[in-house]
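pinging the channel bc i need a second pair of eyes. not urgent but kinda urgent?? the chain im working w is below, pasted from the shared doc
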Amino acid sequence: MELDFNSKFPEFDQYEEHYLDLMAFTLKRLDIKCDPIVSVSFVDNKYIHKINKKYRGIDRPTDVISFAFVDAEGNYDKILSSPGVVVLGDIYISIDKAKEQAEEYGHSLHRELSFLFIHGLLHLLGFDHMKEEDEKIMFSLQDEILSAKGI
């Protein structure tokens, strides 16, 4: 398991170890057998706005964007349950948006940054929330992981 951590914000460098722990826990919980590589970058609203506009056609900043490199439609289970290195993809998290949302939702920035990472990671692992039933599965799994880690 490898996490390529990039941040424009040195005050958040401790999140590399935290995210490695969350990633290991999530992979074990989901019984993922592959040896994944994930890149996570902390960016500002200006940067994530550009990404959101270019790749999603949405002209505003967002909190988290994931780019999955595994494009295997129905083969996710096979790929993730096989031993071997798999580059899962990139996660971009807006520190600005995370701060706004932590205040808006009345919880800590730590909780928000943890939630956004788990959300992005689950997208890389093939989860989505486009349909109501998929949203229930994904969001309950996020809550379960955060709860189990005491967050």
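so The CA atoms of residues 44 and 94 lie 5 Å apart. and The chain has one domain: 2-148. — does that match what u expected or am i reading it wrong
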